[in-house]
Amino acid sequence: MSKVPSLVPVTDLRQDAASVLKRVRNSSEPVFITQRGRAAAVMMSTEAFEKAEHDRQLLRLLARGDKEIAAGKGHDLESVLAEADALLVE
Question: What sections of 1-90 are H helices per DSSP?
């Protein structure tokens, strides 16, 4: 069961931005800012944003690796591990 998102109307954000920022900082969950009853923006802590960006970059690298394997450009595991071992020795 998915968690119900935290919603804050833009009017409430204007009136008490400090409270909304405190909620964002103290939670790892994003806060959805609504305008006229519709989601208009998402606010999240810098830590959550950095983690999301890191995860996105990792997924991008994995997708690129899948494309390379499909195109026959991949490397076998033994050669990758041998190269890693050589780098660790240096």
Answer: 10-15, 17-26, 46-70, 77-89
Above 60 in pLDDT, residue 41?
yes
**Phi, psi of 74, rounded to the nearest 5 degrees:** -70, 170
**Dihedrals φ, ψ of 37, to 5°?**
80, 5
Terminal-residue alpha carbon distance, the chain: 49
What residue spans define the domains of the chain? 6-44, 47-89
Which CATH number, 3.40.1620, 3.30.70, 2.60.40, 1.10.3470, labels domain 6-44? 3.40.1620
pTM of the model: 0.67
pLDDT tens sequence across 43-65: 999 999 999 999 999 999 999 98
Residue 40: strand, helix, or coil: strand
How many residues are there in the chain?
A: 90
